[in-house]
Fold these 2 entries.
Entry 1:
Amino acid sequence: MVKIEIKNLKVWFPVRTSFLKSLYSKKHQYSHAVDGVSFKIKEEEIFCLAGESGCGKTTLAKAMIRLIKPTSGTVRYSGVDLLSIGKNEFRSYRRKLQIIYQDPYSSLNPKKNVFNTIAEPLKVHNFIKNFSEGKDIITQILEEVELTPAESFFGKYPHELSGGQRQRVSIASSLVLNPDFIVADEPVSMLDSSVRTEVLYMMLRLKKKRKLTYLFITHDLSLAWLISDRIAIMYLGKIVEMGPTDEVVSNPQHPYTKALISVIPRPTSGVKHKKIILKGNPPDSMNIPAGCRFHPRCFEAKDICKRAEPSIVKFNKNHYVACHLLSQKRKP
Amino acid sequence: MNIINIRDLKVFYRTHKGKLRAIDGVKFSLNKGESVGMVGESGCGKTTLALSILKLLPPRGYIEDGNIFYKGEDLVQKSEREMRKIRGNEISIVFQGAMNSLNPVKTIGEQISEGLLLHTNMSKVEAFDKAKESLISVGISPDKLIEYPHEFSGGMKQRVMIASALVCDPQLLIADEPVTALDVMVQAQILELLNRLKQEKKLSLLLITHDLSVVAETCDKIVVVYGGKILEYANIEDSLLHPYSKELFRSFPNINGPRILSKGILGTPPNLINPSRGCRFEPRCNQSLKICVKEEPRLIEVCDQHFVACHRLKTSGA
Ligand SMILES: Nc1ncnc2c1ncn2[C@@H]1O[C@H](COP(=O)(O)OP(=O)(O)OP(=O)(O)O)[C@@H](O)[C@H]1O
Ligand SMILES: Nc1ncnc2c1ncn2[C@@H]1O[C@H](COP(=O)(O)OP(=O)(O)O)[C@@H](O)[C@H]1O
Ligand code: SF4
Ligand code: SF4
Ligand SMILES: [Mg+2]
Ligand SMILES: [Mg+2]
């Protein structure tokens, strides 16, 4: 069963240009943060979105759960077209779709203790009438995220918690409304390595127990490989490769994916693998190159790449790639 | 020949709960031209050690005991004035999250040449030329010299920090988490840069990180720190032997290995105010012996140039 499906989703941000520029050009400038993305995530799947900083991962995820208004495209959640329903109707879906942010330091309110942080969404969604009513629910959710004894955490403020504990609190407050689709936006990238594995382990346990569907965002491909079922590689607002994680990591087809996989640091020294280190600046969503948007940094670019944009095509069962090399390969 | 030789170093912080033993008897040396990676969980004392070498400890921190020999001279005995001649000139540091500490109202060129104006008799013009050279060596175009930091991405800012750390041609570079929180591709670019500088400038490098993979790819040797102590010191090709190092290694995803998520190392880091008498890792160790609670294991050489502090490994070298 498909949990969530997006079709040709676009998010363009209007960019303020200087007064001078606006005099000689009436055209609005846009940042093409998400530039036509389609995929489906199945129920109880872990779908990973990976790519460099600024490629549009967070914007895409926020648009999927209506935290940002998409410019065009559709989002279907359990069959319902989320973008066409009104605000009031959306409210009942709101609690089903939650997000866990990257930085536990800035996503928690420093002036709120753990109890009130978790009680807040309960109150907003009328699960409880006052804060004290939530005690049982909050105790239970804190135990689920392994902050025990739960009561000893009630009165603690963010600055009294370690990074790992903070992230557990924000996970608890995302889960307390019993959502079934979770966007996890780099949930462990700010954590120390051993704390990182503990939090990930817990997230996977919660997924099994609560039958969650995850959209997991990361730029760390080794982590994506470890936990996800399928992976999509994003570059400048578009998906360039998508498929079962094992297959994409062991047999990458798009030059960009090949580069990303080659630079994954490996804990075993000795076997030196060849790294493809991309030159040039990270991409800029305000100036998207013509043709294949990756061509200025591509080490396999051909003439056609400057002129025509490759469309995403099937390479293998469930494995899709957007690169001209592929269509050429397939010709006899 | 060693460039840094640390003997029984103890560095404490005064806290309202008592003395916090952040570095508690550390002994190690770094040879000229060598790169050593220091790994360990957050709070184990990595940054404190780096700050001690440069004597930049915060007011509440102090060196309780021990020596830090740099080219045979004990830095612990040196005055602040003498240290100023060494910092940035002979030994440079790139701090954790340093890229956010660039001055927003000064150009990149001004900031890189600052060290030169402080340590040499160079004129402003000469210093600017040298800054240009340094910027090019970290892979940034020289026309960026007159730009301001806000026009730079995180990765570029981090390179600028490296450029200014290197502008006086130091002998030793200490890099504290230089790639943490950076994007994978930028991380790869910075590590490649460090590798290149190591070869071209014969730079000695102390790389501090919690990421074992980064050390494996950049360093000649590895030091594993836990609760203010060194538990293991080995050549990067050697397999790690200490139970803690092994657990740490297992908790890293390795795309060449099996696709299993480890549970992590259960338990919490040790209390540094009232440390236990025995092995500091004992409460979390699944191989502990009776003696581990009572007696602290000493760091001994179990085989050639490979040191381990664990009661289980005392005899394996013999
Ligand atoms: N509110 C906004 N207004 C204008 N541009 C924006 C806005 N939010 C994001 N962008 C731009 O959209 C692009 C994608 O940003 P986004 O935050 O989605 O990237 P990301 O892939 O999540 O990056 P990171 O890995 O750094 O979190 C970037 O070029 C960014 O500058
Ligand atoms: N200014 C300070 N005052 C008191 N304690 C400190 C201070 N700085 C660090 N510490 C303590 O010293 C120990 C080592 O810290 P640090 O060197 O920063 O570790 P690392 O760099 O390995 O994460 C920790 O227990 C930390 O809480
Ligand atoms: S289409 Fe051309 S430029 Fe784009 S990734 Fe493929 S080879 Fe490279
Ligand atoms: S000394 Fe004992 S407790 Fe410490 S690591 Fe070795 S076996 Fe484990
Ligand atoms: Mg983001
Ligand atoms: Mg530190």
Entry 2:
Amino acid sequence: MVCLLLFSPIMKDQAGDYAIFIYVRKPEGVGEALANIIGRAVGQHQLTIFASPAELTASLRTALHNGDIVIVQADQNTLAELLACQEILEISRLILILTEINEETIAMAHRLRPRFLTGLDDEFLKVSAVLGKMLEAAA
Amino acid sequence: MAKILVVDDDRNLTRVLIEQTRRMGHHAMVASTMRDGVENARLGDFDLVLLDVQMPDGNGLDFLPTFKEVASRPEVIIVTGKGDPAGAAKAIKSGAWCYIEKPHVTKDLNLHMARALQYRAEKNRAARGPVVLKREMIIGSSIKINHCLDQLAQAAMSDVSVLITGETGTGKELFARAIHANSRRSAKNFVVVDCASLPETLIESTLFGHEKGAFTGADRAMTGLVKQADGGTLFLDEVGELPIQTQKAFLRVLQEHSYRPVGGCDELTSDFRLVAATNRDLEKQVSVSAFRKDLLFRLKASVIHLPPLKKRLEDLRSLTGYFVSRLCERYGQEKKEFGVDFVATLSAYDWPGNVRELAQTLEHAFSAAFHSPTLYANHLPDHIRILQAQTAVQQSKTSLQACQIPSDALSLPAWRQFRDSYEKEYLQRLLAQTKGNVSAASRVADLSRTHLYQLLAKHDLQG
Ligand SMILES: Nc1ncnc2c1ncn2[C@@H]1O[C@H](COP(=O)(O)OP(=O)(O)OP(=O)(O)O)[C@@H](O)[C@H]1O
Ligand SMILES: [Mg+2]
């Protein structure tokens, strides 16, 4: 299960909202719920849904800018995929939501240097709060 | 800063010596008997001893070998009231650095001291052997950055807490990671605590974890970051933002190496190495009670201060080359060249956002020059090019005036000073006109909000 959201101040539209890219892989509902809840916390947003990890990384390579905020919901396989293309994410500020929690996934997660690491929770309250504070500082 | 021990019973002279060493940036301590002197030398780790000959409880020349043999193996300079050739010969044979007579001491000491300390620093470096430092993408070879890399190497070898200070975007996080990567803990986790983006309500549970039931949600299984850093490094980023309540709890962890999760009663332990970073003046925060003095004392066991980019412009070319080649790789492009004016224009700007702002600026320039094999100054944003143009005009104006009316040219302030005062005046008027609304101000000024915030911070203004 993968869900990735990207907040890009550079892609900001005239109204001052952040563009959000989202990548969802099974079950689609979860990613959308996350996007909606977070979208509500930060205002309007633009959604881009990618169909495959390859499409996503290709797009991130050029869509990601220094200081962008990226939110990824990830299991162990996704972490491995992200570590394989770590240099793409390096310039971003990463929020990681782990769907599998054990010593190994936590160690893998820290290699991606997240600014915030948390577990999956139904309402994404923590993620919304942290994201809100990050966006406030970047405003 | 070196540590110096002054062994002398002449109060007036010791006062002068203390003042003189302090002015050279060193820390000095006095012992007024031989016995105290030897004891202090054994306990403290002194780099240099200034040793008198005639002391109430002994002769300095007799004790010289004792001082030379204490653990820190200090250099010793003999300071004598009555010089005699035999004494001087004995001193040098017993390993003294040099022999100075008191009437000349204030005049000669600085030079001898500087040479002795330089010799000692080189000897220590050689003894450590060449340190192979993993630079972890830290670019630059200026004297300033090399000095910081030396400090990094030193810090990586031990387990002491390190405080990294410096303006925004100077590379504090990069250095923190490099300390970890070069330390014996590198195989374990490097855990980032972003104190600036953690809301107060979450900070303690994020750091210390929480007992089941203290919070709802399925992330209950998550341990705190302090535990995740066990065996590794805990990086407290923007430590100045840590709420005062949490500072207290954290201090306890540092002192006792144990802590309690939120809502729990069992004590847990974690063996982590602490690295903290801040762009704030923590001493100032201590003075207004916004930061705990005892915590600051613990954090700054070792301090690395990263210089702003404008103070190490020698590194601009290599940094620019590095960032542009990474962009080329990222976008699958051929290597790009720089026009002659490109780096010159970058050098005229003062980079309030430091290396991060440089990276962002180059990203803009790169997209502006996407199809061009060469980056020219006109690919750079206006605010940077305008400054270069103004600097050039100002320079030719100044040199013109200097030819005609030299006295007038001398009364001109330095360019930076002149520009800063106008910049500040502009910002004040801008804020007044927009009633302090930063969004409106950034529109009027046609500056990004980030850039505007940086300018406001630079001049201590608030939007
Ligand atoms: N010496 C350097 N060589 C290469 N890149 C650097 C250097 N210094 C900083 N950078 C880059 O600049 C950006 C900012 O660096 P970093 O995040 O470490 O700064 P910081 O001091 O922590 O800033 P802030 O106070 O805003 O958090 C990063 O992308 C980093 O990789
Ligand atoms: Mg930082």
